[in-house]
Amino acid sequence: MRNMGLSPGDNDGPVAILCCKWCSYRPQWSCNHPTRGFLLRVDLAKPKRMPTLVQEWALDRAMSARETCGDCGRRFVFCLSK
Q1: DSSP labels for the chain?
Q2: How far apart are alpha carbons 57 and 66 in whole angstroms?
Q3: What pTM does this model have?
Q4: Phi, psi torsion values for 13, nearest 5 degrees
Q5: Distance of alpha carbon 33 from its chain centroid, rounded?
Q6: What proportion of the chain, given as a percentage, has pLDDT over 90?
Q7: Burial class of residue 15 (count of CB atoms within 10 Å of its CB; 0-12, 13-18, 19+)
Q8: Average per-residue pLDDT for the chain
Q9: Fewest CB within a 10 Å sphere: which of 5, 28, 32, 55?
């Protein structure tokens, strides 16, 4: 759905949940592995919302603050630690 530019929209819940091989043998345990996936209905999906210019400006300022050194004022291309 992400590649198609859609968000879940009015989907009440997943139609099915894909679990890993390990969890399929133990259904009493909940699968919390990164291999778990949710199958959603595409016909109920809605287009993604686009941020406004003000929201993009605020996000740019926040990222600028995270990437700028407090001592020398130099901006890096990665987030600096606190």
Answers
A1: -TTTTEE-TT--S-SEEE--HHHHS-TTSPP-STT-EEE--STT-EEPPPPPHHHHHHHHHHHHHHHB-TTT-PBPSSPPP-
A2: 14
A3: 0.51
A4: -175, 175
A5: 16
A6: 33
A7: exposed
A8: 84
A9: 28
Of 80, 50, 48, 49, nearest in space to 65 by CA? 80
Least confident of 4-8, 24-28, 66-70: 24-28
Residue type, 2: R
Q: CA-to-CA distance for 20 and 31, rounded, in angstroms?
A: 8
Angle ∠(6,52,49) on CA atoms, nearest 5:
15
- Half-sphere exposure of residue 31: CA atoms within 13 angstroms, side-chain side: 17
Judged against a pLDDT cut of 70, whether residue 38 lies above it is answered with yes
